From TrEMBL, chains A, B:
<dbReference type="Pfam" id="PF00465">
    <property type="entry name" value="Fe-ADH"/>
</dbReference>
<dbReference type="Pfam" id="PF25137">
    <property type="entry name" value="ADH_Fe_C"/>
</dbReference>
<feature type="domain" description="Fe-containing alcohol dehydrogenase-like C-terminal">
    <location>
        <begin position="90"/>
        <end position="259"/>
    </location>
</feature>
<dbReference type="GO" id="GO:0008106">
    <property type="term" value="F:alcohol dehydrogenase (NADP+) activity"/>
</dbReference>
<keyword id="KW-0560">Oxidoreductase</keyword>
<dbReference type="GO" id="GO:0046872">
    <property type="term" value="F:metal ion binding"/>
</dbReference>
<dbReference type="InterPro" id="IPR001670">
    <property type="entry name" value="ADH_Fe/GldA"/>
</dbReference>
<dbReference type="GO" id="GO:1990362">
    <property type="term" value="F:butanol dehydrogenase (NAD+) activity"/>
</dbReference>
<dbReference type="GO" id="GO:1990002">
    <property type="term" value="F:methylglyoxal reductase (NADPH) (acetol producing) activity"/>
</dbReference>
<dbReference type="InterPro" id="IPR056798">
    <property type="entry name" value="ADH_Fe_C"/>
</dbReference>
<dbReference type="GO" id="GO:0005829">
    <property type="term" value="C:cytosol"/>
</dbReference>
<dbReference type="InterPro" id="IPR044731">
    <property type="entry name" value="BDH-like"/>
</dbReference>
<protein>
    <submittedName>
        <fullName>Uncharacterized protein</fullName>
    </submittedName>
</protein>
<feature type="domain" description="Alcohol dehydrogenase iron-type/glycerol dehydrogenase GldA">
    <location>
        <begin position="2"/>
        <end position="78"/>
    </location>
</feature>
């Protein structure tokens, strides 16, 4: 919703088609002021200047980033989120984790202090989701959960970080663009498969994740613990669970590949790799 | 230096005596814009809107806080701090820790996520100080050290925190106001004595500190490890080392008591308690 508001706010003062702005290349110079009240914390849009939006005609899910799009005021009140359903709480939790993990696992360098900060967000989300699934009106747990959501994407997780990408997001955006599933549900499907596939490319970081987030020793155990947590909070971990059929894999891979090309990541993710990755999510 | 700039920036546009603004009560409405380049990271003034300054005529060391005093631009470049002396590095390290510890030990409530954030800053300062004392031009360690200094006082350590005070700062300010010693050196003297005295008022927090910052079990061991670290980095831990004579204790206690009264903390710190506390620093 805040992302839509950002695109509308930029579109109103843009002398042209607003979709021109949503291609990760053009950045709007100006926008109306945005005042928002959060009903759900996950995207982190309340404390950043980016937006991702689906063009339903072209089935593209792209976005923009511009200092003009920072919300002027964001009201983030724990009480207002106590009625979020358990499913959407789980999807939100996975979304917040994915904002951390895309960066954490792909970055070529993360300062120790920033890595600890990211692990703190992950531990906070995991701990408070467990509490909130039992008692949705736990004020302290909700406060920490929604603050973790904001902090996960307000820029603080990128301090001193080099060479990070947003792999699972690029993959998932096509899933929720082509199939009408919540972004967090799509990420819940992507993350276990992607981390298993990606782990060998950054084994030390996965070991650190295993140790500091789940208190286990090996990278494989960490990835397994994370998958078990997703299952435990009742989020989907397979394409089947989100009703993406087996014959949908090829068109989906082709759709993702377009985004991958825009991000200049086609060498890492040729269409065969994407197909294999999606097949491992069945 | 940035604190002085803030007071000057507020004083230029204030229609009266600038010292009126420096009493923790009046807050300036306006100030000139401040652009700063850091030569030393410790105070955190580069990312907040507060200032503390000494009036040498009255020997008062008070300050103000005002949104008008936020620096417009702060240039924080690790390279520019590689020539900081080992003594000033140590004083800076203690100052940053004290910004965290005053809040951490006195707060009646700290969210788990914020406590973990504070512990991350403390661990970062301790780890990088050890590296920088050996190699002052270690760019990565310096980057983390100076970022820790900014984060320790940019508001992020107070998220969701209730009932915190700045005890060791209130005590130390009189020391550096009456005796020309660096603020961080004074804090190095105050902290071991104060934490030993204060520990019984918040034993669980001290146990957490011991466990999460120094990897030891009991609060006493944590306080001891912290004192040993101050000694190791060659900062002073006694009044004698900073040339405050024994007959200086009574006037010092009287001076501190005035600040304590302004902060409304006279029940916790009657003048006898301050005298005992200072005596334990001999």
């Amino acid at each position: 919703m805040i992302d839509s508001a950002k695109v509308i706010a930029a579109g109103v003062v843009y002398d042209g088609d607003v979709w021109d702005l949503c291609n990760y290349q053009n950045s709007p110079d100006a926008a109306l002021k945005i005042f928002d009240i959060l009903t759900l914390s996950a995207a982190g849009s309340e404390t950043n200047c980016s937006a991702v939006i689906t063009n339903e005609e072209t089935t593209e899910k792209f976005g923009f980033s511009s200092p003009a799009a920072y919300p002027s005021v964001s009201v983030i009140n724990p009480d207002l989120q106590s009625t979020v359903t358990s499913h959407y709480l789980a999807y939100s939790a996975v979304d917040i984790c994915s904002h951390c993990l895309d960066l954490y696992f792909t970055a070529s360098y993360i300062p120790e202090m920033t890595a600890d900060h990211i692990e703190n967000i992950l531990k906070t989300v995991i701990r408070t989701t467990d509490i909130l699934l039992k008692n949705p009106s736990d004020y302290e747990a909700r406060s920490e959960f929604i603050w973790a959501a904001s902090v996960a994407l307000n820029g603080s997780t990128r301090i001193g970080v080099e060479g990070n990408r947003f792999d699972t997001h690029l993959i998932e955006h096509s899933m929720s663009a082509l199939y009408d599933i919540p972004h967090g549900a799509g990420l819940a499907v992507v993350l276990p498969a992607w981390t298993s596939w990606h782990m060998s490319m950054n084994p030390q970081r996965y070991e650190r994740f295993a140790r500091n987030v789940f208190g286990v020793q090996r990278g494989e155990e960490g990835v397994e613990a994370f998958r078990n947590w997703i299952v435990k909070i009742d989020a989907p971990v397979s394409l089947k669970e989100v009703h993406i059929p087996e014959n949908g894999i090829h068109p989906l891979a082709a759709h993702i590949f377009r985004t991958i090309q825009m991000a200049g990541m086609q060498e890492l993710y040729p269409i065969e790799t994407l197909t294999d990755l999606l097949s491992s999510m069945r």
